[in-house]
Amino acid sequence: MAIFNKGTFGKASLLKHARLALLAAAAMAPMAGMTPANAATIKAVMQSGLRVMDPIMTTAFLTRDHGYMIYDTLLGMDETFKIRPQMADWTVSDDGKTYKFTLRDGLKWHDGTVVSAQDCIASIKRWAEVDTTGIALIKMVDDIKAIDDKTFEVVLSQPTTLLLSGLAKLSSRPAFMMPKRIADTPANKPITEYIGSGPFKFVQSEFQPGLRVVYEKNVDYVPRNEPASWTAGGKVVNVDRVEWVTMPDQMTAVNALQSGEIDFIQEVPFDLLPLLKNSPKVQVKVLDKLGAWTYFRMNHLYPPFDNKLVRQAAIAAVGQGDVLKALVGNPEYYNTCAAVMGCGNPNGNTYGEEWVVPSDIQRAKMLLKEAKYDGTPVVLLQPTDIAMLAAQPIVIAAALRKAGFNVQMKTMDWQTVVTQQSNQKPPAEGGWNLFSTYAILATSGDPFGNTTLSAAGRKSWAGWPDVPEIEKLRLDYAKAATPEEQKEIAAKIQKLAIDEGVVGPLGQFRIPSAYSSSVTGFLESPVRVFWNVRKDRE
Amino acid sequence: MISYILKRVIATLPVMLMVAIVVFAILRLTPGDPAAILAGDDASGEQLERIRQMMGLDQPILTQLYVWVRQLLTGDLGVSLLSNTPVIQMIGARVGPTLSLALSTIIFTVLVAVPMGVIAARRPGGWLDRTVMTFSVLGFSIPTFVVGYLLIYWLALKLGWFPVQGYAPLAKGVWPYAQRLILPTLALSGIYIALVARMTRSSVMDVMGEDFIRTARAKGATEWSVLLRHALRNAAVPIVTVIGIGIASLITGVVVTESVFNLPGLGRLVVEAVLARDYPVIQGLILLFSFTYILINLLVDVLYTAFDPRIRY
């Protein structure tokens, strides 16, 4: 049977087919995106592409921001670090041991069912299995039970501020609420259904892992009446859709913003800022005023950094100004700071700044002499594929060599560094002595969120410092009943962290965002949220 | 011929199996841990171990290989360790932009490069030849991303004729589809035009010295007829080979062009998967790429017989 005949390719037939094809294409166009022509859509280029969808399983910041889009939290934190009601309000018993949480009216999951106390209990339990604050908190919880559909009670074995601060935690991992059937998933297994009660709904049909995530306004969401501030207050959504588009090349993102193809770039590389600063169509602004801190971590298990004096020598040798100049360049976006819990955070304490901040090679040399350093090589991990992590190892290596260290740099990609971090083998057998990284200050402001301050030897995070006094102080911090008491304990932790060489602070920096002038209302917040944002319809 | 094609197709199976085993082994020997990437860099050792167990990465390598090959035999490429999405679905979502860019580039290349090569070969050393060869050297020398940025600057940002980036499927309309392919096609074609034009020039020049060309001229054939009907057809075998290799490399690795123009193609997927140590995705892609190479080589071999009837299998 002939599939094609002459008529198939005749002129009239071709025109007819072309018309049909155009009609079909026109008909399919709205189906492809299902976007109304007048919908206000924010197209945002985030720091990377979203692949991991479970904000409880991972500490990745992008997954956390995804969490803020579709989930809600029981409590929020405002720009003065005050804990505020969000999904729930609370009362506390006189002895400070029993907290009663009452869910506010109008809370619904995206599938239309009502948010219940049982859902919240299951969510808290899953979060507490893996989160550093949650793990410490759950040990102090005697009971957690539903009183009715809208009320539940948490009974503590002793008063602690960790309950409220944990439920209002800003960053990895915030205690996001999920329906019980989803929250019952073991914490080491990723969830497969993405239903929250937050201000946006996840559009599963348009999700392309690593490429594009689409959220649409949750029209059933009832925001609080208070003005929005960080994660507290009313989450009022003024746009119909938010699309996260991944662009592997930042130059392309900058060009796309200038041509109006996208509306927002979460992190603009410092070297591309001059391209945007004079553009009338674009605003450049630091939205996370707290910013990030960069630091280096030494391996306490093996020589030479099993010796406190050698660790102190390394901290003294490296100058924060040198690192920040190489990393950021423009002083508008960085500042030196010796606080391990961050300058700008309530627990920020600057003990030791006189020798932590500058590069004091003489002091480093004296300390090395006192420690009888024998030239044992320092294996320094050097990631080369991420701009925000590439400069530190080079500056650190130069400073250490100047002080007399024998430094061996191992070049690799960041994911290999991440894998190496948990390798407890000796450096000569594939292990490591030193690496540097950075973290946002929103996660680092307390001794539980700040993973560098866990000091329980091999059970701690990479570096494995063993300082029992810090562990005791962390427990005291958990039991502290007032912020003043916490601050006092935090100051003691700061002193120990610096003197024992638990972590080497390298300074703080802020990465600017850029957005179209037609977009207004971006909240200044340590986490990226899209409520309150408004876009002029064209 | 049919038995030859069948034999070649059957011969691909052990090759694919070898590729599968080698890729699997290399990935397991490469430093990196998908569990660490999934959990984030603050995860404790205990948390990582639990995730490794969940992913089956705590099993002996031979057990993991057995599980994967058994999946493969049922046509299942597995599921992404990070996004939990079936690998076949991820490849399906990315194949459109890659194929579109590969086809548009190769069509544009052939339309431009073959005539350029023939023109250059007509009078070696003449001004046309020198001009063509100058363009060819430029095509080889200027990196694709530089051409890409220059095109974006002039044609997208300054003149506003094209979008800066992105891909629109054909379902969104012919013009949006074409509009987003023109700049990447132009940027990427440079190097292929240079390659094919040089190959065409040298192949045609080789053939121009043959006896049958002299005979054709003696019979009074015009110079263009000699070039196109006699010389080009006989020079086609190496040109087709180069074009075939070009198509294969376009499908498997145009990461830079895909990144500069933000095209969500297979090249980017493979880089993303490697950086994230997403084993099932990398394995699935490498298998696909090796199959593509084998298939295109087979097609090129079959095409030889069309251009040169003396070749028989």
Helix-strand layout with pairing:
The complex is a heterodimer of chains A (538) and B (313).
Chain A: H1 11-33, E1 41-45, H2 61-70, E2 75-77, E3 83-85, E4 88-92, E5 98-103, H3 117-130, H4 132-138, E6 141-148, E7 151-156, H5 162-167, H6 180-183, E8 200-202, E9 212-217, E10 241-245, H7 250-258, E11 264-265, H8 273-277, E12 282-285, E13 292-298, H9 308-317, H10 320-327, E14 334-335, H11 353-356, H12 361-371, E15 377-383, H13 387-403, E16 406-412, H14 414-421, E17 434-440, H15 441-444, H16 468-479, H17 483-499, E18 504-509, E19 513-516, E20 519-520, E21 534-535
Parallel strand pairs in A: 1-10, 1-11, 15-16
Antiparallel strand pairs in A: 2-3, 4-5, 5-7, 6-7, 8-9, 9-10, 11-19, 12-19, 13-17, 13-18, 14-18, 20-21
Helix pairs in contact in A: 3-4, 9-12, 10-13, 16-17
Chain B: H1 2-29, H2 34-39, H3 45-55, H4 61-73, H5 87-122, H6 127-141, H7 144-158, H8 174-208, H9 211-218, H10 223-234, H11 236-252, H12 255-260, H13 266-275, H14 279-307
